[in-house]
C-alpha cells in the first residue's frame, strides 16, 4: 500500500481501452502508473534481480554485508541489496529468482545460496531471522550465523571500492534496462527511469537509471561490464543495445 508505482501490464490480447482505464484508475488512486509489456519479472523486478543476485555473490566472496549495504546507501539507494532481501522476504526473492533464471539462465543464473537460507528458516524481517538480526521491528546488525548458513568460510575477508561496488551492482541493472528497451517492455528510457525511481527508490538526484548511465557514458559502462564478464562470467556480457551505443557514441536519451 506504500508503493507509489503501479506497473500496468498489458498482454497480447489486452484491448487498448482496458490498459487506458487501468492507467486512469491508478492515477485516481494517487499512484504513478507505467505501462509495461507482459514478460517474466515485468520491468522493475526484472531489472532489480541482477542487483540482488550480485549483492549475495559479493557476500559469498567475503565482502561484509554491512559494507555492501552501506556502499549502496552512500550511492543514494534507500536500502542496500542485502537489507532489501530481508525486507522483501528471502523465500519470495528465491521464488522470483527461479522464474527469471528459467527464462534467462546465462544472465540470471540461479544461486543455491537463497535455497540454503530458506531451508535453514532464514526468511528475513518477517521471521526476525535473515541476513541481519532483529529486535522487534528494528534491524540491529549482521547475524554471524547467516554467513555460516551460506557456507562463507571467511566473512569480512574481502574489501571493495565504491567504484567497483557501483560497477558490480548498478551496471548490471543498466544492462538489463538495455535489454528491456530493446524488447519494447517499456515505451522509453524516461518511463523506465520513472519506474525505477518510484519502484525501488533509485536516487532521483541521479536522474534515474538510464540518465545515470548516460552520465557515466555507454562506453565506460560497456567496458566495465566486459571486464567483469571476462573475470566473473557471461552474465555480465554487455547487451547488444548497450554495446551498439558504446560503439557509436550514443546514449539512452539520444544525446551524442
Task: Offer a quick outline of the entry.
The protein is built from 13 helices and 4 strands. The protein has 256 residues and is mainly alpha-helical. The strands form 2 sheets. The protein has a two-stranded parallel ribbon with strand order 1-2. The protein has a two-stranded antiparallel sheet with strand order 3-4.
What layout of secondary structure does this protein have?
Blueprint: E1 5-10, H1 16-28, E2 32-37, H2 44-60, H3 65-75, H4 81-88, H5 90-103, H6 112-119, E3 132-135, E4 138-142, H7 144-150, H8 162-169, H9 171-182, H10 189-200, H11 209-216, H12 218-232, H13 240-248
Parallel strand pairs: 1-2
Antiparallel strand pairs: 3-4
What profile does the largest beta sheet have? 2 strands, parallel
The best one-word shape is globular
For the termini, the CA-CA separation is 40 Å
Question: Stretches where pLDDT falls below 50 for ≥5 residues?
Answer: none
Average pLDDT value? 95
Range of helix content = 55-70%
Strand content: 5-15%
Per DSSP, the total helix count is: 13
Q: What structural class should be given to the helix and strand makeup?
A: mainly alpha
Largest beta sheet: what is the strand line-up?
A: 1-2
How big is the Rg?
18 Å
**What's the number of extended β-strand segments?**
4
